[in-house]
Amino acid sequence: MNTLKYLQSNEFLLDVDLWRLFANLEELNKISLSFLKTFFETVKKHISKSDSPMDFNPILRMFFQGDLCQTHQIYCLNYTSAVFYLEKLRQREDFGIYLKWCEQNEQCKRLHLPELLVAPLHRLTRYPLLLNNIWKRSTDETEKSFIQSLKEKVEKSIRDLEGKVKWLDNFQKFRQLQEVIIWPQVWDRDKRFFVPEGLKQNLRENSSENILSSANRLLLHEGKLMLAESTRLLDVYLFLFDDFLLITKIKRNKKKYGGSDTSLIPVCPSLTPELQSFIREGGFCTVLDQPIPLDRLILKNVEPIQVTVFSLRNAFLIQHENRYRQCIALFLLQAQTETAKKAWMSQIETAISNYTTQHETKKRTAFCFPVESSEI
After folding, report:
1. In terms of DSSP bridges, do strands 297-301 and 315-321 run parallel, antiparallel, or are they unpaired?
2. Of 156, 279, 300, 366, whose CB neighbour count within 10 A is largest?
3. What is the largest CA-CA distance in the chain?
4. What region holds the PH domain (predicted)?
5. How confident is the model over 245-274, as pLDDT tens digits?
6. Which pLDDT tens digit goes with each residue over 26-59?
7. How distant, in Å, are the alpha carbons of 114, 200, 242 from that of 196?
């Protein structure tokens, strides 16, 4: 961070956002160091004067009821965004030179910047252990009670933070998916639908990409499979969300819809390595058919003897039904291994079961509560 500040004062790397990369690291470093020094001064006083009691209460009260945890929280909430931003910056030659020079410094102890950036997260999770060790060695009941309350407060702070970090991580992930998943217009997706050029502008589906904008939606499973067509096997990439399944066709062109270059898009670290690698290669995914809601999805196992003629292995069938229980689409999919097939089928079955349970609970809640219920 200090090296970057120095370079920017000399008009290098001026477009690099110091906060996006390091957040409140300076403040965090200052308060952590202050806590450490004050803590060890108390220990030193006790050692030099063996008759003096080792009273940590004033220090613990000052820092744990003060800004120590809050400062950590601010840093941790920026962490996912910082890693995402770093991934983008590393593609630049000038930033790469700066990063390499810094990481070769002996103070880094052969650690790279991503490993250094995560260190404050680990430190925060160790504070309850420190408090617990002090609590164990305390003999005064009032002091023990105070330390226990501090420990519970820090643990609650960590739990709250984990929820926020997961939400932000999910938000970053879905923002990345919006970049790489392409939604063709209905007339491009299915040649049966003819629309004159003059009408296309009025009928453009602008809302399709917004399907992935909900930060409350969860991505449960994803991966590459083969889709059996009449004359060939097609590479497809499936995204299983907590409310629908999306089947996309893999495209390896450098150019995305609208002409932007996907190889320049920073890669979200929480995506699977397979998808990260695919995005770095400039790939994107074109939606093959409409999303399949989990309450309209029928999953069927395919025995090897049923598809021997087509040389298909590790196959299973996905059937899309409409609200009248009519089949409107079929997808015969092949996994690379039997294990991968079982994993996909298990994930889909679990997702359908959870989705059904949640919706049945919502229905019962909507119709069964009395009017005077305190829940309303």
Report:
1. antiparallel
2. 279
3. 93
4. 218-353
5. 999 999 876 544 444 444 445 677 778 888
6. 999 999 999 999 989 888 888 887 666 678 888 8
7. 52, 7, 37
* Alpha helix stretches (DSSP H) within 10-56: 18-22, 25-48
Burial zone of 281 (CB within 10 Å; 0-12 exposed, 13-18 middle, 19+ buried):
exposed
Residues 189, 287 contacting (CB under 8 angstroms): yes
Instruction: Tell how far CA 44 is from the center of its chain.
Output: 44
Report the C-alpha gap between 354 and 54 in whole angstroms. 53
The residue type at 245? L
Query: Which element (helix H / strand E) includes 226?
Result: strand 219-228
Sequential DSSP letters for 108-140: GTT--HHHHHTHHHHHHHHHHHHHHHHHHH---
User: How far apart, in whole angstroms, are the C-alpha atoms of residue 346 and residue 223?
Assistant: 14
- What's the pLDDT at 122? 86
- Those residues with Cβ within 8 angstroms of residue 134's Cβ, 6 or more apart along the chain or in another chain: 56, 60, 147
d(CA 340, CA 347): 11
Residue 152 reports pLDDT greater than 50: yes
Residues 6+ apart with CB under 8 A from 38: 59, 62, 63
Tell whether pTM > 0.85.
no
